[in-house]
Amino acid sequence: MSAVTQSLRLAAQPRWWSFALWAVLLVLPYALPTHALLISEITIIALFALSLDLILGYTGIVSLGHAAFFGMGAYSAALFAKHIHPDPLLGLAAATGLTMLLGAVCSLGVLRGSDLTRLMVTLGVALILQELANKFDGLTGGADGLQGVVMGPVLGYFEFDLYGQTAAWYALVVTLLVFIGLHHLVHSPFGFSLQAIRDNRLRAQAIGIDVNTRLVTVYTLAAVLAGVAGGLQAQTTGFASLDVFGFDRSADVLLMLVIGGTGWLWGGLIGAVVFKTLHSVISAWTPQYWTFWLGLFLVLLMLVGRERLIRPWTWRRNT
Amino acid sequence: MTTDVVLSCEGLVKRFGGITATDHVNLRIHRGARHALIGPNGAGKTTLINLLTGVLEPTAGRIFLQGQDISQLPSHQRVRRGLVRTFQINQLFDGLTPLQTLAMVVSQQLGLGGRWWQALGQGDQVTKRCESLLAQFHLLEVMDQATHELAYGKRRLLEMAIALACQPSVLLLDEPVAGVPAGEREELLQTVAALPADVSVVLIEHDMDLVFRFADRMTVLVNGAVLTEGTPLEVAANPLVREVYLGQGDTHG
Question: What is the pLDDT of residues B138-148, one digit of tens each?
Fold first, then answer.
C-alpha cells in the first residue's frame, strides 16, 4: 500500500478511544440510574452542539440563532404526539420533515454577506419564531408552554419511565447514529469540500465546487439535526415551551462548542458535558453567581488557549 | 500548433465607477498556446483574469470557451468546462494538508465531490492522481503537514498543483513565481515548463526572462486596453511597447 493510500485511510479511521468512550456513554444510564435524566438532557444538548459544529466548525457559517431549529423540532414533535400519533420515531420523522423545510428556506439567508450579516440573520429568525410561537397560543400554548404531551413507547416496546432511563438510552442511541453518520460525512469528499469552503470560499469556487448548493445542503442538514435534538427534548420531557427558541439556548450551544473545540466531532460532546457539569457543580455551590464563574472560565479559556489550559504542566515553560 | 481558438473574448469592458479597468479587450487563445499577458502595474491584467474566470461580471462584452458563450456561467461551471486559474496571492485551504487538498480536488474533478458516505481517497484513480501530482510538484515529503505550516515556495507549488488537479484545458497563471525566493524559483519554473503540451496556458508575469523563455505569443495591456499583440520578437521590437513598458528600467512592482 502506498504512503498516499495509507495516509488517507488512516485519517478516516475512527480512533480506538472513540469506541471506548461511546461504550462508556452507552452504559451510563445503567451505571448511574439516579442521574439518567441529566444524562439524557446532556446528550440532547450534545447532539444540538454537534449540529452547530457541522455548520460552524466544518463549514464556517456562524450562527446566533441555531435554537430556531431546535425549537421547531421541539414543537413539531410535541404537537405531532399530542394531535396525530404518540409514537416517538414517527414524531422524530415529523420533526425532521418540518425542520428540513425551515432549514432549506433559512439557508437562503446565509448564502450572502459577512459573518456579521449571518449572526444577525440567524438571530432574527430565531426571535421571529419565538414570537410566532408566543402569538399562536391556541396551537402552542403560548407562554404557558405546550402541556399534556403523552408519548408512546419507543419502538412500541420501551416505555418512558419516571427515572429517565429509557429517555437516556433513546437520546444516546439517536445521537450515536448521528455521530456515526457525521463521522462518515466529514471524512468524505463532500465533507472536505465543506472545509475547503470554510478555509477559502474564492478558491473553492475556483476548483469547481458549487458553493451555494453546498451551503444550502449543509445548512439544511444541520437544521434537521438540531430539529431532531429539539424533538428528543420535547419527547423525553413531554413538554415544549417558548425557551426552546431562546437566545440563551443559541448562545449556550455556541459556548459549548468553543469549550469543546470546533471542527471535530467530539468537540460538541465534550463541550456539552463540561458546560453542564460546570453548571451543576458551580450552581450547587453558589446558585446566584454561576454565570460569573462561567464568564471567568471563558475569558481564561480564550486568553490562555484550550491547549495550554488542559496542560497545566506547560504553564511555566516559555513558548 | 493548430489554429483553433479555445478561449476568446470580444469587446470585454469592466468599469468600476468612473474607472475603466478593462477597455474593449479582444483576445484569442489558441489550443496549446503559451500566451503571455504583460503590462505595467495597474494595466488590468488580473481584472481581465477575474472577468474570464467569472469572479467579476463584465460591464459589456462576451467570453467564449471552446466556441461556446460562457459569459453568463457561474465561475464553478467554467472550471468544470476546463477553464482553471491560479492566484497571484496564494489561495489555499489552510486547515487541510496538501494531500487532503489534492484528494478533495481530484475527487471533485472526477465527479465524486458530492459523495458523503465514502471516505476521501477511496478508489485507485484518486490516489494515483494524487501521487503523481505530489511527485510532480515536489510535495511528497510535506503531504501530511498542515498547509499553513508550509514554506512559501511549497505553498506556491501547491497553488499550481491544485489548478493542475482540475485537469484544465486552459490554464490561467497569475504571476506564478511572484514572491518566490531565488533558491526555490527553479523548482517552480520547471513545473511551468513541464505543463502538458495540449493545455493552453495564459501567463501573467513581470519577470521578462520567464516571459521570453516561455511564451510563443504575447499580448500587451496598457490602461485596460490591448496595446499590441504578436510573437515575443515582434512585441520586443515594437517601439510603443518599449516606450510604455520595456524601456522603463525596473518593471517589477
Answer: 899 999 999 99
**Could you tell me the residue ranges of all domains in chain A?**
31-247
User: Do B173 and B249 sit in the same domain of this protein?
Assistant: yes
Question: Does residue B175 lie in a domain region?
Answer: yes
Give helix A36-56 / helix A165-186 axis angle, nearest 10°: 20
Angstrom distance (rounded) from CA A288 to CA A286: 6
In chain A, the residue whose alpha carbon lies closest to the alpha carbon of B54 is A206
Chain B 144-183, residues with CB within 8 Å of chain A CB atoms: 144, 162, 165-166
CA angle B67/B70/B72 to nearest 5° reads 155
Task: State the Cα–Cα distance between residues B132 and B137, nearest whole angstrom.
Answer: 9
Name residues whose C-beta falls within 8 Å of residue B113's C-beta, 6 or more positions apart in sequence. Answer: A189, A190, A193, A208, A209, B104, B107
CB of B73 less than 8 A from some CB of A: no
Cell of B82: 476546463
Q: What is the pLDDT of residues B67-89, one digit of tens each?
A: 899 999 999 999 999 999 999 89
Q: How far apart are CA A244 and CA A231, in angstroms?
A: 10
Q: What is the pTM of this model?
A: 0.91
Mean pLDDT, residues B217-242 = 89
pLDDT band for position A180 (50/70/90)? very high
